[in-house]
Amino acid sequence: MATGSNGDIPPLSTVSTRARHTIQLKDFLTPYAVTSGMNPYHPKDNPKGYINMATAVNRLMEEELETRLRKADAMQYDRQFQHYYQLFGTFQFRMALADFLSRHLCPGRTLSTENIVVLNGVASCLDALGHAICDPGDVLLTPTPVYTRIFSDFCERALVDVQPIITTQEKNQENLSFTYQPRDIENRIQELKAEGKNVKGIILVHPQNPLGDFYSKSFLLDVLQVCARHKLHVIVDEIYALSIFRDEESFVSFLALEPISPEPEKIHFVWGMTKDFGLAGFRAGVIHSTNQEVVNCLKKLSTYQCTASIVHHACAALLNDKEWCDDFFLPTNRRKLRDSYEKARSFLEEMGIEVREAKSGFFVWINLQPFLNEVTKEEELALFEDFFKQRLFVVPGSILYCANPGWFRLIFCVHPQDLEAGLEKLRSVIEVRRK
């Protein structure tokens, strides 16, 4: 019989084995997010508060969004919102999504509303896909470093074993760090199969978090060939697909590749209103899949993971307003993202800090190894604590499964005054370390 650390027999648990598994999975960042969220910085009202440059939220378009959402067609109350509806997404919203995604990510292709399911956030979408595609213990691969909750979203309830494809800071012929080749996926599949693992698919975050890059069309086609050879599903999280502020024409969505994929029914596209529209509180995540069995399962799961119909109505109003959405909001957002990124990058590089070039997303990925006493995870976390003591919340790379200690992720699309104050706090900590 198992005993506790002190040798005593533990009391019988009041929850299931599955629940204990979920409880035991700790989230490193949550306590820091709670602390900083209860005491936020304001240049006049609370200059000693915390500056959050860790949570991936775009604060640059808040005023523009508020103005648009206050119009009657978006948030006007209707009696229909009191009643049941298609919990996997109102027809109005799915129609708006099909048209919006088509015109921005796969022009010339008509998406069917029957292949679209709406759940309460992209985390819920990933959780539901794990349930639909994998049995407990099955493996999904993902390149690292990566958004930390990729592991949690598939593991906490669906009990999927997410395994990394490890990349490093060693630079390739194009002078880029943290890269890999399709053959690395093949090698990792073979390694895991040799260990007796059942590899069911791969998860790609495209554009990437935390690197702020995206994959080329030729690379993606090669990945699809590898996955087809091994009969793998491809789950692609494109939550930052419209937050590209450089080389916009080069970005190719999986929605554009699906018709020419060797196995299109094994591609499952995920997007949401959270990042590109800064509407994290709306909890509107989207899955597109042509796999009818998967879609049928997701529709059933929507009973437990749905979003309020009034939210669907408001989101549809934004997406259908092409003059506001396509001609004003998206290009203005891209310009603001580019300007804020360049400001942060210039500041950091003037300090002598290595910045990995980004094209998309909300992230500055920086190398702070020169300011560690030793290049270890322990020293990285000690530097993280130094930042937090100065009321600056950033993300240490090890929490994002980075193989090389000393890299950090900063969110640059905070309010302009927060960006300036946050970078100054970072400078003050680095200058102490430099001395």
From TrEMBL:
Question: Where are the membrane-spanning stretches?
Answer: none
Q: Please list the GO biological process terms of this entry.
A: amino acid metabolic process
| CDD domains cross-referenced by the UniProt entry | AAT_like (cd00609)
Official protein name in the record: Aminotransferase class I/classII large domain-containing protein
Give the Gene Ontology MF terms in alphabetical order.
pyridoxal phosphate binding; transaminase activity
- State whether keyword rRNA-binding applies: no
Aminotransferase class I/classII large domain: residues covered: 51-426
Supply the Pfam families for this chain: Aminotran_1_2 (PF00155)
Family membership: Belongs to the class-I pyridoxal-phosphate-dependent aminotransferase family.
UniProt keywords (A-Z) are:
Pyridoxal phosphate
